[in-house]
Specification:
Chains A, B: Pfam families: LacI, Peripla_BP_3. 2 copies of one chain form a homodimer. With about 350 residues, chain A is of the alpha/beta class. Chain A is built from 13 helices and 12 strands. Chain A folds into 3 domains: about 50 residues, Orthogonal Bundle (434 Repressor (Amino-terminal Domain)), CATH 1.10.260; about 130 residues, Rossmann fold; about 130 residues, Response regulator (Rossmann fold). The relative contact order of chain A is 0.12.
């Protein structure tokens, strides 16, 4: 296992070691019947022993498929993506595809560059999020990308397939629940409205207020909060106001620990001094004392649907019109909210 | 944005639209100075307008680098990997590399197949875990892989670089802490001893017992627990025994919620009826009531080190001897353990 053996093994090495011509190795590789069984077995054994790998890049110039699909999500450290990605991968693996994941950092330039890289590397299909559904460059790149694409939780680009959750209905349900408990100052912590989930959540929150005849205080809507550090800071600021909110709806992905820390730091108790609804169910929400009321949707189902749509496009083409699947969101009521 | 525009744009389309010969487009692409500024600008504008992409697969047959590195971890849904992966990616991104992630499902065949795919796709480097450090096929494949490789938290294969945490010292510290509180029946929940982390944790646990002169009860060591479902089941079984453990050391990655649920289901209270140490710090450990005493190491640092080692190998070759970096593990004492 010395270092010398790590040099790339070529077809010439195989031929030399098996004591045959290069053309014979090539015929064995291409399954020609003109090679005797004895020679074929010797060559195959040599290929295994030396660890020779055919250059797949050269091969894929001849064959259309790379049997590789790529998924680009905002960040690797968002647990809420994990079950989605895991289900998508399982679907692709069982169809014989390699599934690779990349992160966009929610940055337009990274998204554009990944799309280009995936195109250059000839992946067979892409599933991805978009930092900004209204950005013309991104929309153009996604619409014209060479391979089939499925958008994850994005709805504005009408010309490609998408799988999303019904965040507007979920947000409306969460907000109406808090309003029905008598809360009138409900803080909404949310991500970037340039993307579908946050935009829809603000709509749902606003609709719920309208249906209850309660005016929305714009100071209570805090957007572009994409991390726990950001939701911690904003919650702390809100709790420091003279008229502090009586309830917090932490709507973004994986942003519950920020508010929980801020409430604790302020010396308040969840479910007594302040009510909290989490926009995404998690172990943290379920195992908290008290357990946190949370919205949930089937993320594995979402990943499976996305993978199946993409597989279908890869294998049957893009003639049929774009499809969209929108999954329902439901509220799991636990012990983190009390009447105002 | 009709579907017809999605056909791949070829160099011929660019030449036709720019009203030049194919050779002229090629010369512009290859930065030949023989093209007039005026023509060059027209061709470049046409390339942008049509969205033409050079076939990178053909290109990479000529150039050695793909500027892509791959990382293979056990599973996408283990939050403990996230900060590692994120830090590694940041390092590669700033060096101009695309970083892709794949999951092995902790399965030897998937690991072998990914190594082959990465080789065929000509990634410039690989960082990965291994399901079994003693498996000859895996060891052989990793030792002979065509590109530089860094192992993540694996130490047995001596011929390649690795970055790991000092799990033995961590496990010893956690166990000695529980022994010093008077616990004599400490359950150890751990992963697969065929890989370095679990093997080392069992060693550390055993060493601590030896140093306290306390015999190890083999029934209290439960291994191959790689999920919260598994740790839930084993904890429930342990708590149902007539001589139940007084303390649980949940040593695996991301396996704390299992024991927490099982303790709650049994009607017991953490920190009163039973003591718990988590082998990995997390939001769940920190925000639990009571907060859970936990081991921690700098996972971002680990990802950064691995990425820097791999970058160095990619850019400066594999002549120097294999390097290993082992990071310290420390115990954060919180409120989940009490004297036995």
């Amino acid at each position: 296992m010395g270092k010398a053996t790590k040099r790339t093994v070529t077809i010439r090495d195989v031929a030399a070691a098996a004591d045959v011509a290069v053309g014979t190795v090539s015929r064995v590789l291409n399954d020609h019947q003109s090679v005797t069984k004895q020679v074929r077995e010797r060559v195959q054994k040599t290929i295994l022993t030396l660890g020779y790998q055919r250059n797949a890049i050269a091969q894929s110039m001849r064959s259309a498929r790379t049997k590789m699909v790529a998924c680009a999500i905002r960040d690797f450290d968002i647990p809420a993506f994990a079950s989605y990605v895991k289900a998508a991968e399982a679907t692709f693996r069982s169809a014989g595809y390699t599934f690779i994941l990349a992160s966009t950092a929610n940055d337009k330039d990274v998204e554009l560059s990944l799309l280009q890289t995936f195109g250059q590397r000839r992946v067979d299909g892409v599933m991805m999020t978009m930092s900004d559904e209204t950005d013309p460059d991104l929309v153009n790149a996604i619409t014209h990308v060479a391979m089939p694409i499925v958008l994850i939780d994005r709805e504005l680009v009408q010309s490609v397939d998408s799988v999303s959750a019904d965040h507007r209905a979920g947000a409306r349900q969460a907000t109406e629940y808090l309003l029905s408990l008598g809360h009138r100052r409900i803080a909404l912590l949310v991500g970037d409205p340039k993307a579908y989930p946050s935009r829809s959540r603000i709509e749902g929150y606003t609709e719920a207020h309208r249906s209850f005849g309660v005016p929305v205080d714009p100071h209570l809507i805090r957007d572009r909060l994409l991390s726990n550090e950001a939701t911690f800071r904003e919650t702390a600021a809100l709790l420091g106001r003279s008229e502090r909110p009586t309830a917090i709806y932490a709507a973004g992905l994986d942003t519950l620990s920020g508010p929980l820390r801020a409430v604790r730091t302020a010396g308040l108790v969840v479910g007594q001094d302040i009510s909290i609804v989490s926009g995404n169910d998690s172990d943290l929400a379920e195992l908290n004392t008290p357990p946190i009321t949370a919205l949930r949707w089937d993320r594995s189902e979402m990943g499976r649907h996305a993978a199946e749509m993409l597989l279908d496009r890869i294998e049957h083409g893009r003639q049929s019109p774009p499809r969209r699947i929108r999954l329902p969101v439901s509220l799991v009521v636990r012990g983190s909210c009390r009447p105002a």
